[in-house]
Design goal:
The chain has 315 residues and is an alpha+beta fold. It has one domain: Endonuclease/exonuclease/phosphatase (Deoxyribonuclease I, Chain A, 4-Layer Sandwich), CATH 3.60.10. 25% of the residues lie in helices and 30% in strands. The chain is built from eight helices and 14 strands. The strands form two sheets. It has an eight-stranded mixed sheet with strand order 1-2-13-14-3-4-6-5. A six-stranded mixed sheet has the order 7-8-9-10-12-11. A hairpin with a 6-residue loop joins strand 1 and strand 2. The longest helix has 23 residues.
Amino acid sequence: MNLKKYFGLALLLITLLTGCNNNITGLSPFSQTQTQTQQTKPSIEQFISPPTPDENQISIGTFNIQIFGKTKREKEDVVNKLVDIVDDYNIIAVQEFRDKEQKTIPFFLNKINENNNYNVIASERLGRSSAKERYAFYYDKNKIKYLNISFTYPDENDVFEREPFIAYFKTKNGNFDFLLANIHTQPKNATKEINALVEVFNYMQLKHPDEKDIIIIGDFNADGSYYDEDDSKLPLENKKYFWSIPDSFDTTMAKSDNTYDRIVFLKDKTFEDYAGKSGVDRLDKRYSSLNEKELKAISDHHPVWALFYTNKDSD
């Protein structure tokens, strides 16, 4: 039985019913849409909207901004929309910076900071081919502190096309500190790379034994023909790992229904900090007046996010 298909149909029905209710009450079609399922235990509150953390919460997001380099940064309208998206997140992992001159990451930070107070931590250019990419973490300096530790995972067996990039952060309000690993798997080798993320978790635990909160985030390509999300025998499907972006989310602009983008953490270590709320920030909901071509000029992925408490960390 294709559970994903049933979840998709259920979510569509709920969305349609919610839309009808919005028309009756006069709410905006961009109003927060919420459904709750038992896809994981305990259940996740699922949202189709940008994140709206409470005072004692932060939003952690991930966004594959498709081929973000010179061509895209010269499209002022697209860049303005990307700024509008990214500054809704307290911290967001970004994938697919492709820029030999390496000007796009600081350029984008400057655009964000025209009306904000953000900083960025970025990797070197990574990848086996000439189409190398950089990872970046953009974070709100009013909410998040960078703890001056960042490094690229030492991929001694050359499993990853682009090795995970890891950085250490702490909330300014509260005691939640955490290691974030940013990953963009190669689609044709996604299963092999996702399986190897178990070793990334292990490495991070050995390198930083005093830090229990380890979160791997990014474009996993964890669905469709690339990865069998229903195969419980795969290493990262072990119950010790909590997938806070459920299989029912559609995270891309494609006509197919796939959950490529994920946020995964160690359940027994970080679940106390997880606020139980996750979402997909659909571009077609944000910008409902844009046509498909205009939306895809922004990206072929939607951002996804999870909320975490700032004041419940016990490690």
